Amino acid sequence: MRDLFNIGLLLSTIRLATPLILAALGGLYSERSGVINIALEGLMLAGAFTAASVTHYLQNPWAGLIAAICAGVLIASIHAIACIRFKADQVVTGTAINILMIGLPPFISGALFLSTGSTPQIPVNKLIPWTPVVIAFLLVFVTWYVLYKTPFGLRLRAVGENPGAADAAGISVTKIRYAGVLLSGALAGIGGAYLSIGQSSLFTRNMTSGRGFIALAALIFGKWRPVQTMLACLLFGFTDAIAIQLQGVRYGGEEIPNQFIQIIPYLLTIIVLAGFIGTSRAPRALGQPYEKER
Amino acid sequence: MKHLRELLFPLIAVIAAFVVGGIFVLAIGDSPIKAYSELIGNAFAWPDGIGYTLFNATPLIFTGLAVAVAFRCGLLNIGAEGQLYVAAFATAWVSMKFGGVVVDVFGQKVSYSWMTLPAVILVPLAIFAAIFAGAFWGAIPGFLKARFGSHEVINTIMLNFIAVALCSYFTQYHYKVPGDPIMQSAPIGESAHIAHLGKFIPGLPERIPVNLAFILALIACALVYVFLWKTKWGYEIRATGANPSAAEYGGISVRKQIVLAMAVSGGLAGMVGINEVLGYHHRYYDGFSDNYGFTGIAVALLGRNHPVGVLLAAILFAILLRGGIFVDAFTDHVSKDIVQILQALVILFVAAGARYRGSLNVFGLLKRSKV
Amino acid sequence: MLELRNITKRFGDVLANDHVNIKVKPGTIHSIVGENGAGKSTAMRIAYGFYTPDSGEILVDGEVREIRTPHDAIALGIGMVHQHFMLVEPMTVAENIVLGAEPGTTAALDLNKAASEIRALSDEFKLAVDPHATIETLSVGQQQRVELLKALYRHARILILDEPTAVLTPQEVEEFFAILRRMREQGKTVVIITHKLSEVLAISDEVTVMRDGRVVGELKTSDTNAAELARLMVGRDVLLRVEKPEAKAGETVLRVQNMVVAVADGTRRVNDVSFEVRAGEIVGVAGVEGNGQTELIESLAGLTAQSRVSGKVDFAGRDITNMSARDRKELGIAHVPEDRHRRGLLLDFDLAENSILGIHYRQPAVTGLGGILLDEKGIERRARQVIKDFDVRPPNPDLPARALSGGNQQKLIIGREFELNPKLLLVSQPTRGVDIGAIEFIHRKLVALRDAGCAVLLVSAELEEVTALADRLLVIYHGQIVGEVDPKQTSNEEIGLLMTGGKKQ
Fold first, then answer.
1. Is residue B371 part of a domain?
2. CB-nearest partner of C106 from A150, A170, A292
3. Measured between CB atoms, does B31 come within 8 Å of chain A?
4. pTM of the entire predicted model
5. Dist CA C465 CA A126 (whole Å)
């Protein structure tokens, strides 16, 4: 058991937590503005696919990264327009985007690369294995600063808590919410890009496999605060790293089932949400389209 | 006339989705007409087209009804996926434990069974297991919401992953035939198999897997209709969904309704297991669900949370599911992924259009459609 | 200074403002009075850019100005304090005040600078507000002062206050008026929207009276009196006459002993209340809104999901303190809730379905299979009965409740509850937002129910209404019954004094 905890495990925790942190911070901007974002999964897929495709064509991962950000913003704008302009149910719209992004990348991949399963392999020297990690951890503190030390952060929090009050103070609720949702697209896009051009070297169908939802769980577990959310992501990354290390490892003659470690983040989230570990209070206006009272 | 109006809005949403989907097809250099005729054109051939469409529609009817019942209570059940996995595993487990000797993947005769029950007892028992397990898994987020006020959307998402992981654990470590490379359970007893409809319908070959579960789905539609609009329980659920404060004023326990609605919803989702395990795979097969739970959201939204609408919408999506195979095979560039894209677009258009019908939210979408 | 010229605003079918002209002079305190729904708030929200008028213009300092959003209004020096405070509760006072007008740069918010400015303003007007406190921890009166600071911080010269005293205790009202006078001294202009005439006379220099969306009077406060203002406000003799014979009170139906209703945060909304209601009498509860009336009635009806009740409640000799709402209804307690949209109706359900809310589980609503199936014929019969007896229009049971006017919605609810032949009726704001014709109809029905031997507990924010209907009158203040009076023997001034925490002479 002792040899389980080593530098390798630490590095692997950090690497596994990185996409979670990026997506969760993205979710934070959206949800702090009052828009539920269960579309993080889909936004990451958009980023992952675009990054892999563009990097393949241009042989430049930086172009891939920027394209991934654009793709995330583009797809997030669908969520934003539906939720803010058309006041659609935010959970339903998010679900639609997740379904869309299960289909769209393989659809395009099939046309571009004649393979719906994956995009072409990118050479190792064209990958960016560490930059997104640095970006992710830097963004935690940037987000903290933005949220608590800038006018934009103040407005974002106000809009998510009490849009009526923000409106009365002369703030455009609509603009702030668009900004929140589009930022979530950008950040989740980077998170996705890290999966395809950082951790691996191509895009495969549905390669996020639930990371968007884990990021959402981390956001709730972290009580919608940047540093706590990062800690939650590290915890979930750690459980993931353990699960990988334990694969095939026998302990006292018995294989330790992976599944039990996998469900830890989900169980913890349910427990936190039920209020057993402190209270996790969502932004008060979360999920409600803003309408002026009459 | 009134019924036609009810149909109009979903129809517009579907047409809009197809138009946008068509643009995607054009963008990758294929003909939308060709793609759509492959997608839809094969659905109406007898017997294969219709038989497979109904087979594909069966799980979607169940999940569509599941989402609709929860919607009517003001709840969004995006946990149908997890509920149907748990239910499928439960029904498989019962059918293994009481199914007698079976022939496994290696052609060996083996028994995993405690006792052998005849079909007349085992089939109802297995069906009950599916419904009960689904209802239990659905009731958990219902209970969490009623007791702790935690949001059912997040909890159902989390429970989906937990369900999949648990079923996969039991399959991998306890109920797999040793040496079988596929993640699936041992076969269920033959007395638990339910008949394909081909057995009763002349001209429908028995190889087509549409089975008695489809009939159950039709019955479920009727029962859900009666339950929601003709019983006092349905009244209570709908009142809770329409205005929880007024429901409380009317002496209705909102908490109880939340748990009840989620349990009924989960039970309906669980019935997918009947189609998949008892009627088709004849074993628990890891990852068998083609996102049925999520498609159920599209089905319910498009079907305006009404059983008749759910039935029609399920058939539409079933046509697409099967059509995807032909699109894959017979167009140059378009893959079956167009189906997911269309599904997503339909949901987006229905959800975004909801406001513009003068209603306040998607739950209100279907406001009182008395058939 | 601020002038509204020919402002017209329509919400759907309702003409909220009909060619409204209001002129506010600089350095004055100007009241706008009128009943609920007279259009006062609408006019002022237009001035603040919350709504855009359909026609008409707004002048600031004699110039026509375009005010499309609150942002525009703020830029012109107009500030508004809303009836429901527009504060972000988990944030601090300073954060709330600077919101939308943040000091510092885009990249760095300077809250320390803000805090010192706020402290200076607070001292200048003697507001005693701590910039670093979190809003959630402040009293209502303090929160209101934060709202004032918000406007002052933005250099507002014109302050619009919507029903500012509704939530204040009498002492707080005095302090508040002192603040307003200080503001006037400093050259600010104040507009107060209110329906309390005593306040108009106490604080303002000029007054505009509105009724049914129109301005019906512009007066100097010194030239007028309460009676004149009241006549202008309601447009008829204020005395609401209800023909009713002497009550023949019978046995005690409801006995409440030392009842306490506490909400989630532990606040006692109803604090140690004891009283009785007898068969054949109407007991009125008078009080300024928000003094525990809602919690009192809802707790007696068994709607206690948000609160904890202690003490003892007896109904017809039975202890019902912990009984469910449904069981209470079964025993003969009917309830007309104060808010028909929130509590009383399922707006998207049709009239038939609404007519059985609360009895949907028993005869005549159910039939067959051991009373599981709804009896559609029985439900329709019941609906038609209510519609006929209570003159609900249009008389179509298939219409959604949403399609009815406020008065008809209210008649539907009252009919539904009366049809139960209750032994006790709990009724709250029975005529709020209801047209005159329906008011009289409802009042007659209430008296008839009393004369049939029902015990009635009536809560209304309209003092005229409770004094006209009640045989005995309880006055509630801060969750406590502070007096019982005979409405025929007591003047409204005396009752008003009790309602605001004053002592009976």
1. no
2. A150
3. no
4. 0.89
5. 81
